[in-house]
Amino acid sequence: MSRLARHVAAIFLLLSSSVGAQTATPEVPTPGLNDIAVVVAHPNSPTGAVILFNPSLCQQIGLACRFFAVHEHCHVLLGHHLNPGGNTMLKERDADRCAAQNAPPQAVMAAWTLFMNGGSSSDWHTYGPPQDRARRLCLFAAQTGNWGGPFPCP
Ligand SMILES: [Zn+2]
After folding, report:
1. How many angstroms is it from 5 CA to the middle of ligand 1?
2. Disulfide: which of 23, 56, 58, 95 matches 74 by Cβ 3.0-4.6 Å?
């Protein structure tokens, strides 16, 4: 069985074991994923989507991984997976706003620190330079009192 086939089988197992009990988007560890986390459409999910994350990248970045997971949940809440295309930069900005305002403050801080140090997703051209993304996180989080870092935003 190929890695992809095993992975798809794992998603079905995960979904069938949680039918009825689960209304959130499942998070599925996906070794070798080419990003920290991504959202993909999936007809068997209660929300129509699953979130795939790379467990070793997540381990490397620690608490910041939670921010990326919330960012993907935000894409689903905002319906972005139902409507591919459109303004990708705007969608990413909206998901970052939602995540900065709803993720645990420690996770927002961890992601902010990662971006301040130049870390980012593989497709950083969509998000702009990591330091700009860090500043947006701070501004978004501060709007709702979810910011525990330095202020005014550096
Ligand atoms: Zn995104």
Report:
1. 25
2. 95
